[in-house]
Amino acid sequence: QVQLQESGPGLVKPSQTLSLTCTVSGGHITTSYYYWSWIRQPPGKELEWMGAITKDGTTYYSPSLKRHISISRDLSSNQVFLQLSSVTPEDTAVYYCASHHNLVVTATPLNPADFGSWGQGTQVTVSS
Q: Which residues pair with 6 in a beta bridge?
């Protein structure tokens, strides 16, 4: 079974770049699932799909984040990366990586049951 684990700094200053890593085990990112997504949940708000990278390396981004987000991967380490630039306190959230086969499941509202695997999430706070 595919397992995902998010990691990264828990505190980021405003205007800096948030960088997170999703380490995948139990399957390779080029074969086990088609999409590898980053999803976040700000306090008191719904889950928000941020973007995804496919097993072939194609990226898809939420229009609302397109100017600030970058998703990449490293095949040798079996990891998927998130970079979110120019963060503000509104980017404070629990960040998750998740795997899935269809892009349609990223439509709002997200249903976690539609995804194959989820990481446990990592809290990121944007504050000076």
A: 22
Please list, in sequence order, all residues whose beta carbon lies within 8 angstroms of the beta carbon of residue 26, skipping any fewer than 6 positions away.
Answer: 1, 2, 3, 32
The answer to whether 47 touches 39, Cβ cutoff 8 Å, is yes
Residue range 61-75, pLDDT digits in tens: 999 999 999 999 999
pLDDT at 38 over 90: yes
Contact status, residue 75 vs residue 36, Cβ threshold 8 Å? no
pLDDT at 55 (0 to 100): 95
Contact 64, 40 (CB under 8 A): no
In angstroms, what is the C-alpha Rg of the chain? 13
Which string of DSSP letters, residue by residue, matches 62-127? -TTTTTTEEEEEETTTTEEEEEE-S--GGG-EEEEEEEES-GGGGSSSP-GGGSSEE---EEEEE-
* Average of per-residue pLDDT values in the chain: 96
CB neighbours of residue 10 within 10 Å: 8
